[in-house]
Write a structure and sequence with these properties.
By secondary structure, the protein is of the alpha+beta class. It has five helices and 19 strands.
Length: 343
């Protein structure tokens, strides 16, 4: 692309509209991947209580079993970079409108931040503990569908605070114009946190552009402690007159990823379009059948998050570990993961 040299152009630059990150500050901060590429999260497995047996001898408290655990492996995958030069001669001929620091800010605001947010939303939906299907909500039922999400989090014992409801402007409009919320100022009462435009059923409402949420997603609910978005590297710099460049060299690197914690996956709920969720696999006589790729575990852990999950090879006969079930889910092309089946 050619450089547009100025003749009588304005000495001001017309920047495109940008928004700050919609996710920053709304994810868990208790896990640190500094110094490592892969982090393994251990979730201990508790046991059911039994009746105390006064005549049970050494087994008054029940059979002794060693506490087991489920391991989730978190591996960093997004290592992005950019570089630009601002030639000193070109900048002079453009009335010095391209200040290097300002151009770096433009790059971060217009490209880096939106790309990271969109990736995180995609991951959160794909790894959601609950994926629900629905026809496109209307103003007569949008509140009911959000209430279903709130109920799902309640049933999963998710804390009331730090719940975030990510809505597109279209869905937000339905909420505001619904008969159930007409004349009620609930949405306006909590408009104090940065990036939050209200509250519904105790969930902080965050309005996001349609292009940010993945395709066929109507809204997403997350609890802060259920999702992670670690940044190992967020590096951006300006070099003035480096070797080989007469002018400024701009460089940036972003090393990050996004996850849903398996132990707290009940804190992530997404409502997606009917037909966009893969069909659940069937398990019979140790064999798994489904349309699409299949992941399974033999130790009873959730194959969506477990370190022990493996890819299923058709017609393979599996045997679950003692006292456990085979658990599996399927992913069809261009669809979201299926519910987990057990057998």
């Amino acid at each position: 692309m050619a450089i547009n040299l100025a003749t009588k152009y304005s000495d001001q630059i017309a920047e495109v509209f940008t928004r700050a990150s919609f996710i920053k500050g709304k994810t868990a901060e208790t896990f640190d991947l500094t110094g490592v590429k892969t982090l393994k999260v251990y979730t201990p497995i508790t046991v059911e209580e039994v009746d105390y047996d006064r005549d049970g001898g050494l087994k008054r408290y029940g059979d002794v079993t060693e506490m087991q655990d489920v391991v989730q492996e978190l591996t960093m995958t997004q290592d992005k970079a950019f570089t630009l030069t601002i030639d000193k001669g070109n900048n002079l001929d453009q009335n010095l409108v391209k200040n290097a620091a300002d151009m770096l800010r433009l790059q971060l605001n217009e490209k880096s931040t939106p790309a990271a947010d969109k990736y995180a939303f995609q991951r959160f939906v794909t790894m959601a503990g609950t994926l629900a299907e629905s026809d496109k909500p209307t103003k007569s039922n949008i509140i009911s569908k959000i209430a279903d999400a709130s109920q799902a989090l309640d049933d999963a014992l998710v804390p009331d605070d730090n719940r975030y409801l990510y809505l597109t402007s279209e869905m937000y409009k339905l909420v505001c114009t619904s008969d159930e919320f007409a004349g009620v100022d609930v949405l306006a009462r909590q408009s104090i946190a940065k990036g939050v435009c209200g509250e519904v059923f105790g969930m902080n409402v965050v309005r996001v552009p349609k292009s940010y949420l993945p395709e066929n997603v109507y809204f997403l609910v997350t609890h802060k402690d259920a999702v992670l978005m670690p940044y190992k590297i967020a590096d951006a710099k300006v070099h003035e007159d480096p070797v080989g460049v007469s002018g400024a060299l701009i460089e940036g690197r972003h090393y990050y990823d996004a996850y849903v914690l398996g132990a707290k996956c009940g804190g992530v709920y997404a409502l997606v379009a009917t037909g966009s969720i893969s069909a659940a696999p069937s398990i019979s006589a140790g064999k798994i059948t489904a349309t699409g790729a299949i992941r399974y575990t033999l130790d009873g852990s959730d194959p969506r998050y477990s370190d022990s999950a493996k890819d299923y090879v058709a017609e393979t006969v599996l045997t679950a570990e003692d006292g456990c079930q085979i658990r599996a889910y399927a992913v069809e092309a261009s669809k979201y993961p299926s519910p987990v089946a057990a057998g």
